[in-house]
Design a protein that fits this description.
By secondary structure, the chain is α+β, with helices and mostly antiparallel strands. It has seven helices and five strands; from the N terminus they run H-H-E-H-E-H-E-E-E-H-H-H. It has one domain. Strand 3 and strand 4 form a beta hairpin.
């Protein structure tokens, strides 16, 4: 398995991808490069322009093999992510079903996928990260790497920043975010620009759970999957199976 490292036009016959995969890449590229309706996350658009993203493809999220395939993709990415660029993220597109589910159904399968992935992880959970998602410093980890996870779905309408024709995930390593935040003046200057773009992009106001990592009152998992309204799950649906010692 090889992660796609750059976008090519759908008509490029040199790219050996199925039609839906080419379309997902094309739609994603169009969104990241749109100069009129600018995607809110400025670091993401920079990463796309610089070619720091890597792309993987999985079956539809309800397919019994989807979790296993996602784990394989994340594992491959994690082994080489530091060589992909300072703004690198992993983008995973899932094949579309014939029907579009509702926001809460996609939320449920999102957390089920992360739980399935975690069950394949034989690496000890990082000692500096709480295992309880209800702690401010918790975040999703796989094979010792810490990730912020973003989910986009075909069901989102008010939050266009979380809408995409294909169910998709973006996993950003914590070291990428740490590098960004290591330049506090730059980060502080960009933050209001991101908020302004978000206000223009979505018809819903910014979700109340969008808070800095580790800050008081923040629960990181609530930012992974934002609903179309201002509600959040009462508790984290993520379930990590503790590996038994052999």
């Amino acid at each position: 398995m090889t992660l796609l490292h750059q976008y090519m036009e759908t008509g490029n016959e040199e790219l050996p991808l199925e039609a839906w995969k080419k379309e997902a890449c094309r739609l994603f590229a169009s969104r990241m490069s749109d100069r009129k309706v600018r995607f809110p996350c400025i670091p993401a658009t920079q990463a796309f322009t610089l070619g720091h993203f890597r792309y993987g493809f999985a079956p539809d999220p309800w397919d019994e093999s989807a979790g296993r395939k996602l784990a394989e993709i994340i594992a491959e990415y994690g082994k080489s992510s530091r060589s992909f660029g300072d703004y690198s993220s992993l983008i995973v597109f899932f094949e579309a079903e014939e029907k579009v589910r509702d926001v809460l159904e996609y939320e449920a399968v999102f957390w089920d996928l992360l739980s399935q992935v975690s069950r394949t992880d034989n690496t000890p959970w990082p000692g500096d990260i709480p295992e309880d998602p209800e702690q401010a410093m918790w975040e999703f980890c796989y094979e010792g790497e810490r990730y912020f996870v973003y989910c986009g779905t075909p069901a989102h309408t008010a939050r266009q920043s979380r809408s995409f024709p294909y169910f998709m995930l973006a996993l950003t390593p914590r070291w990428v975010l740490d590098r960004w935040n290591s330049q506090p003046q730059k980060a502080a200057a960009v933050a209001p620009q991101i908020r302004a773009r978000l206000a223009a992009y979505d018809t819903a106001p910014a979700h109340p759970e969008l808070k800095p990592y580790g800050s008081e009152g923040n629960l990181e998992y609530r930012q992974y999957y934002l609903r179309d309204d201002d509600t959040s799950p009462a508790g984290c649906p993520f379930h990590r199976a503790v590996q038994k010692e052999k």
